């Protein structure tokens, strides 16, 4: 029982972090694209 709750919590935590990490990566991508286009 507790084991299932723990797995669920870990999955939930990873899922929320996955969304944040994706947003962060998109921000980094946008910044690098902007600086790249400025350098050209």
Alpha-carbon distance between the termini? Answer: 58 Å
Question: Which blocks of ≥5 consecutive residues have pLDDT under 50?
Answer: none
Individual helix count: 1
Largest sheet: none
Mean pLDDT: 84
The succession of helices and strands, N to C, reads H
Question: Approximately what portion of the residues adopt beta-strand conformation?
Answer: under 5%
Fraction of residues in helix: over 70%
What structural class do you assign from the helix and strand content? mainly alpha
Total count of strands: 0
Q: Please, how many domains?
A: 1
Question: What is the gyration radius calculated from CA atoms?
Answer: 17 Å
Approximate shape: rod-shaped
Please characterize this protein's 3D structure.
- With 40 residues, this protein is mostly helical.
- The chain has one domain (1-34).
- Helices cover 95% and strands 0% of the residues.
- It has one helix at residues 2-39.
- The longest helix is centred in the middle third of the chain and has 38 residues, at 2-39.
- Keywords: Chloroplast, Plastid.
């Amino acid at each position: 029982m507790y084991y299932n709750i723990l797995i669920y919590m870990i999955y939930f935590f990873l899922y929320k972090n996955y969304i944040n990490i994706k947003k962060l990566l998109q921000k980094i991508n946008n910044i690098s694209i902007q600086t790249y286009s400025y350098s050209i």
